[in-house]
UniProtKB/TrEMBL annotation:
Residues 89-99 have a biased composition (Polar residues). Keywords: Signal. The keyword Signal applies. Residues 63-115 are annotated as: Disordered. Residues 1-21 form the signal peptide. This is Lipoprotein. It comes from Agitococcus lubricus.
Length: 115
């Protein structure tokens, strides 16, 4: 019977102590920390995913810029080659026209035909 009274007194003291305490229990504090840690872990993972995606985009962008620079050089080379061809072609056309004018100015003499 003494054990029962002692147990009842301890239980009563615990209940009174818990009821009058306004601070959260260790378990509640631990659960709160767990929620905070989970939020931080999710935030970190999102950041890590963003970094990985960003690094891939940077690498792809750099590759495209490099290809674009190479294409630009090829394009500039084609333009220069085309301009030279146009210039040379126009000169050939002008020379041909001048030669034709000279040819028309100096007809080939024909031999007299015999009747």
């Amino acid at each position: 019977m003494l054990k029962s009274l002692l147990s009842l007194a301890v239980l009563s003291a615990l209940l009174t102590g818990c009821a009058s305490s306004s601070q959260p229990s260790f378990g509640a504090k631990l659960a709160e920390r767990s929620v905070e840690a989970d939020k931080l872990a999710k935030q970190w993972q999102q950041g890590d995913d963003a970094v990985k995606k960003g690094e891939k985009l940077i690498k792809k962008g750099q590759s495209l810029v490099q290809e674009g620079q190479q294409d630009q050089k090829k394009g500039q080379s084609l333009i220069e080659e085309g301009q030279k061809l146009v210039e040379n072609g126009k000169q050939q056309m002008a020379d041909s026209e001048t030669g034709y004018q000279k040819m028309r100015a100096n007809p080939i003499p024909t031999s007299p035909s015999t009747p």
